[in-house]
Design goal:
This protein is an all-alpha fold. The protein has helices at residues 6-31, 36-62, 68-98.
C-alpha cells in the first residue's frame, strides 16, 4: 500500500538529490586535492553521501514511492558506487601507510 503523502515523497526525493549530487561534487574536489590526506577526506565524505543516498532510496521504496524494478536498478548502482568509494578510501590509506607517504602535493597525479 503506497503512502499517499506528497510532502513526504518530495522530502525524500530532495534529500536523495542533495546527497546524490554531493557525491560528484566531493569527487570533483578530491580530483584536485592538495594532499593525500585531503584526497582521503573528500573521498570519505563522498562515501558518506553515497551511503546516505542508499538510505533515501530505501525509504522511497519502503514507502512505495518507487516500484521494485526501479528500486533494484538505482539501489544496485548506488551500492556499486558506495563499494568503489570504500575501496578507493581503503586502498589510498593502505598505500599511504605501506609506502610511508607523507603530506605532499597530490594535484592531478
Amino acid at each position: 500500500m503506497a503512502l499517499d503523502n506528497p510532502i513526504e515523497k518530495r522530502t525524500y526525493l530532495k534529500q536523495m538529490l542533495r546527497s546524490g549530487t554531493s557525491i560528484g561534487a566531493m569527487m570533483r574536489e578530491a580530483k584536485f586535492a592538495q594532499s593525500r590526506a585531503d584526497f582521503v577526506s573528500k573521498t570519505s565524505i563522498a562515501l558518506k553521501e553515497a551511503n546516505e543516498t542508499l538510505y533515501w532510496i530505501e525509504l522511497l521504496h519502503d514507502g512505495n514511492y518507487i516500484d521494485d524494478k526501479t528500486f533494484e536498478s538505482i539501489h544496485g548502482e548506488a551500492n556499486e558506487i558506495t563499494s568503489i568509494l570504500a575501496s578507493i578510501v581503503k586502498t589510498t590509506k593502505e598505500n599511504s601507510e605501506k609506502y610511508g607517504i607523507t603530506e605532499r602535493l597530490f594535484l592531478n597525479s
